[in-house]
């Protein structure tokens, strides 16, 4: 045998290493995963080494119903949990919820026919799966999908699989609820048996909750008929247990006081930093952009140096909020928990598949302040769940009526902007709700979610600093008894006030624990992470660019030049840089009788717009999804139709083709002024702010070739589409950039 030289040994070693990598999938050298770096809601189920075989998992835990969820911000996961609880309490099903990314699906062809799978699927972005559903979607949609028993599409390998499905979408997007529609199509072609109609919730119409409630009742009937289930009186059956630990000191190093995981508890900043592990970043600059005192638009610079976080222009920064102290106090008081708010508690699952949404031991105060979405509007179903624990029979009857009567609930609760504690106060006139088990809030309320904001800085100029621009939200609804205040934007305002010397900031009467758990955020810090986006400028700098967007999206006030012309000095700088090649026109809705909207300005420049489109221009829209973005889409189709003399249906196809090729991109927000108060999970993008300012800054600071050729037009307007209630905000921005 010939002696191996060094190169032979290196090659053989590489081949061996590659072989091991292929068969072990990197198991032996993979970085150990922080137990909270995956889904923090996994609790005991997140332990290392757990099976990825869902059938094995169901057999081990004696389950006959699994509810899979594809969730971006937690809403779909919340609906999955609600289905699991209702299936158990009403029909005696042995239920579990399952994160789609935690299981493999090659053995779905062995799914027992006496069990059922449910799919709760949010659509994200431009008809895409949520991050945790990508692998499942790629597998199930493949034309050569193959299962363990060898069957392909033609063999109908999923003939034993019974399933139901509900989707979370937004009708203001072209690909409305495409995730649930496509998944049901793929499952059906593989022979799966869908029980009942697939449900579709519409966040764009504001009917998500009622859509869900309307869908699930006939679904349960169909499922009961299919599986021979008997309905019984539903009673609350906790899946978690809260144990008080009076012998433990809340200041103990082992007690979580709002820290999201063990590294943070130990005072370590250890990455990777993501949606389950924030970076505690210093705020190095903050300033007010409005010139009036009764409303606020914030500019903030956040330092990410040392975090290994990176971003490119167009990405989103997530800010992890904390609930306002005033609302925490209200919640504690009405539940009779005020005197033991700092009592140490331990939370554990009563079932191996139960998911605990935060680490413990902890305290009542920490759970309510840092982990529960206590300021969000209340669901009708949750009101029904609380009714049995009412302080007296008359309140119980009122709660029961609210839970069963959609119109009455809207009149008494939704239209008044009540959060949970406000409703309980109103109903009981201050009488304590001390019969309610704390577990019902852990299980029934959303986990507080990060809020996403468009990054308004250039990564090429300041890669270690991220700028955000955010309007502080305060929504007044006619007839409502309460003003809905943005959770995160008021938190940011408190940080800004603190940085500017206010020792006790309380924006809009709200106070915040701005120094964080154990004062770990002292020095003006905020927990953040970065989410990457497909909203990017074209890689080819010769491509023309058209940008359309409002200054602050759906801000709750009307634009007026003297008050709301944000970044005015930078607009002037752009004009100075480009001279005669830059033109800027402004119109503000309260400065004149004539209302001019973005879509009107597009049509005024119709010939120029069409010429740029024929030069393969990229078209960007940032702002309100329900009104402005839809109107802009329509206007663009009309421009193409009129300028080219083609039917509007053909023009619509051209716009769709632009979307499919990423030549038409949107970064739009849903939910009106509620965007900061309600965690969204269907097509839920960042808060759109100062799009054109951001893009022009990017181009200017980059020294892009486009700047040498200049901008054809730049127009600022205020937006009030369709003659509806004004979408109030600082100036909208239309920019047309190209090789002129």
UniProtKB/TrEMBL annotation:
Family annotation (PROSITE patterns): FAD_FR (PS51384), FLAVODOXIN_LIKE (PS50902)
UniProt keywords, alphabetically: Cell membrane, Endoplasmic reticulum, FAD, Flavoprotein, FMN, Lipid biosynthesis, Lipid metabolism, Membrane, Mitochondrion, Mitochondrion outer membrane, NADP, Oxidoreductase, Steroid biosynthesis, Steroid metabolism, Sterol biosynthesis, Sterol metabolism, Transmembrane, Transmembrane helix
Keyword Endoplasmic reticulum on entry: yes
GO cellular component, one term: cytosol
GO BP: any one term: ergosterol biosynthetic process
Catalytic reaction annotation: 2 oxidized [cytochrome P450] + NADPH = 2 reduced [cytochrome P450] + NADP(+) + H(+)
Sites where the protein binds FMN: 71-76, 122-125, 168-177, 203
Function recorded in the entry: This enzyme is required for electron transfer from NADP to cytochrome P450 in microsomes. It can also provide electron transfer to heme oxygenase and cytochrome B5. Involved in ergosterol biosynthesis.
Gene name of the encoded protein: cprA
GO molecular function, one term: FMN binding
Cofactor: FMN; FAD
InterPro entries in alphabetical order: CysJ-like_FAD-binding (IPR003097), FAD-bd_FR_type (IPR017927), Flavdoxin-like (IPR001094), Flavodoxin/NO_synth (IPR008254), Flavoprot_Pyr_Nucl_cyt_Rdtase (IPR001709), Flavoprotein-like_sf (IPR029039), FNR_nucleotide-bd (IPR039261), NADPH_Cyt_P450_Rdtase_alpha (IPR023173)
Domain Flavodoxin-like: 65-220
EC number: 1.6.2.4
Binding-site residues for NADP(+), renumbered to this chain: 295, 552, 589-590, 595-599, 631
Species for this entry: Aureobasidium pullulans (Black yeast)
Protein name: NADPH--cytochrome P450 reductase
Residues in FAD-binding FR-type domain copies: 276-538
Main localization category: endoplasmic reticulum
Matches recorded under CDD domains: CYPOR
Family per similarity comment: Belongs to the NADPH--cytochrome P450 reductase family. In the N-terminal section; belongs to the flavodoxin family.
Residues at which FAD binds: 451-454, 469-471, 486-489
Top EC class of this enzyme: oxidoreductase
Pfam family, one: Flavodoxin_1
């Amino acid at each position: 045998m010939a002696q191996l030289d060094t190169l032979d040994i290196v090659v053989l070693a590489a081949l061996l290493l590659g072989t091991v990598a292929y068969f072990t999938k990197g198991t032996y050298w993979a970085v150990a995963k922080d137990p909270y770096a995956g889904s923090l809601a996994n609790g005991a189920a997140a332990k290392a080494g757990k099976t990825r075989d869902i059938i094995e998992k169901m057999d081990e835990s004696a389950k006959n119903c699994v509810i899979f969820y594809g969730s971006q911000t937690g809403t779909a996961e919340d609906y999955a949990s609600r289905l699991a609880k209702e299936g158990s309490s009403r029909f005696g099903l042995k239920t579990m919820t399952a994160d789609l990314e935690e299981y493999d699906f090659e053995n779905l062809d062995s799914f027992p026919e006496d069990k059922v799978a449910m799919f709760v699927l949010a659509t994200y972005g431009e008809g895409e799966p949520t991050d945790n559903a990508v692998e499942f979607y790629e597998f199930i949609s493949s034309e050569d999908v193959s299962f363990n028993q060898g069957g392909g599409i033609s063999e109908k390998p999923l003939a034993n699989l019974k399933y139901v499905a509900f989707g979370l979408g937004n009708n203001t997007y072209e690909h409305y609820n495409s995730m649930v529609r496509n998944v049901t199509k793929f499952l059906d072609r593989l022979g799966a048996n869908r029980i009942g109609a697939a449900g579709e919730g519409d966040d764009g119409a504001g009917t998500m909750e009622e859509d869900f409630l309307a869908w699930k009742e006939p679904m349960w009937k169909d499922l009961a008929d299919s599986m021979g289930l008997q309905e019984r009186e539903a009673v609350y059956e906790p899946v978690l247990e809260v144990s008080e630990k009076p012998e433990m000191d809340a200041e103990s190093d082992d007690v979580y006081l709002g820290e999201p995981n063990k590294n943070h508890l130990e005072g370590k900043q250890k990455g990777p930093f993501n949606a389950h592990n924030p970076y505690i970043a210093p705020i190095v600059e903050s300033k007010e952009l409005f010139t009036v005192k009764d409303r606020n638009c914030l500019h903030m610079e956040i330092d990410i140096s040392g975090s290994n976080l990176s971003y490119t222009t167009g990405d989103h920064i997530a800010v992890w909020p904390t609930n306002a102290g005033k609302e925490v106090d209200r919640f504690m008081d009405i539940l009779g928990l005020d005197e033991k708010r700092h009592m140490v508690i331990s939370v554990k699952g009563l079932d191996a598949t139960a998911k605990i949404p935060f680490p413990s031991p902890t305290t009542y105060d920490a759970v309510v302040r840092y982990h529960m979405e206590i300021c969000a509007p209340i669901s009708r179903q949750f009101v029904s769940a609380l009714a049995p624990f009412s302080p007296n029979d008359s309140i119980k009857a009122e709660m029961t009526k609210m839970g069963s009567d959609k119109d009455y609930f809207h009149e008494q609760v939704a239209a008044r902007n009540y959060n949970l504690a406000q409703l309980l106060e109103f109903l009981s006139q201050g009488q304590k709700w001390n019969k309610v088990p704390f577990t019902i809030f852990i299980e029934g309320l959303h986990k507080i979610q990060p809020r996403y904001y468009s990054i308004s800085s250039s990564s090429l100029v300041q890669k270690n600093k991220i700028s955000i621009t955010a309007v502080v939200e305060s929504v007044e609804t006619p007839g409502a008894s309460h003003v809905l205040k943005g959770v995160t934007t008021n938190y940011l305002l408190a940080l800004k006030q603190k940085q500017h010397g206010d020792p006790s900031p309380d924006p809009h009467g709200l106070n915040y624990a701005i120094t964080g758990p154990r004062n770990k955020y002292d020095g003006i810090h905020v927990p953040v992470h970065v989410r990457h986006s497909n909203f990017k400028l074209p890689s080819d700098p010769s491509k023309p660019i058209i940008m359309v967007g409002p200054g602050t999206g759906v801000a709750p006030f009307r634009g007026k030049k003297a008050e709301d012309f944000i970044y005015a000095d930078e607009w002037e700088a752009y004009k100075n840089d480009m001279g005669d090649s830059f033109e800027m026109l402004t119109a503000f809705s309260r400065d004149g009788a004539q209302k001019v909207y973005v879509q009107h300005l597009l049509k005024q420049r119709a010939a120029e717009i069409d010429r740029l489109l024929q030069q393969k221009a990229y078209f960007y829209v940032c702002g309100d999804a329900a009104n402005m973005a839809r109107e802009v889409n329509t206007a663009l189709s009309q421009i193409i139709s009129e300028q080219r003399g083609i039917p509007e249906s053909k023009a619509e196809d051209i716009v769709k083709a632009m979307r499919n090729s990423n030549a038409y991109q949107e970064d739009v927000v849903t939910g009106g002024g509620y965007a900061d108060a309600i965690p969204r999970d269907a097509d839920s993008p960042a808060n759109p702010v100062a799009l054109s300012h951001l893009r022009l800054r990017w181009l200017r600071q980059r020294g892009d070739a486009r700047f040498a050729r200049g901008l054809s037009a730049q127009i600022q307007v205020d937006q009030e589409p369709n003659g509806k209630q004004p979408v109030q905000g600082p100036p909208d921005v239309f920019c047309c950039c190209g090789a002129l």
